[in-house]
Amino acid sequence: GVTTAPAVKEQRVYFGTDAGRFYSLEESQGRYVLAWSYKAKGMARLVGAPVIVDDRVVFICANGKVYVFEE
């Protein structure tokens, strides 16, 4: 299931799951649709909400890895 609180910037929502998958949803005509998703390798349980810095979204995992995605 979803393990993080969402982070929101403009029409985008970012969150992660306990399966190590990161998601970005985009608002379009009153609905949210998948913009992109990424599956981390290995055990990548997310900790905390994603952080948005400028045009980047940062996910931190319990295994110490940090994933940064540019929008």
Molecular structure report:
- By secondary structure, the protein is mainly β.
- It is built from no helices and 7 strands.
- β1 and β2 form a beta hairpin.
- It is globular and about 35 Å long.
- 15% of the residues are buried.
- The mean pLDDT is 89.
Output the strand order for the largest sheet. 1-2-3-4
Roughly how much helix do the residues carry, as a percent range?
Answer: under 10%
**End-to-end CA span:** 24 Å
Element order: H for helix, E for strand: EEEEEEE
Rg, Å, rounded: 12 Å
Number of helical segments with 4 or more residues: 0
What can be said about the biggest beta sheet? 4 strands, antiparallel
What's the gist of this structure?
With 71 residues, this protein is an all-beta fold.
List the helices and strands and how they pair.
Blueprint: E1 7-9, E2 12-16, E3 21-28, E4 31-39, E5 51-53, E6 56-60, E7 66-70
Antiparallel strand pairs: 1-2, 2-3, 3-4, 5-6, 6-7
Task: Write out key terms for the chains shown.
mainly beta, 4-stranded antiparallel sheet
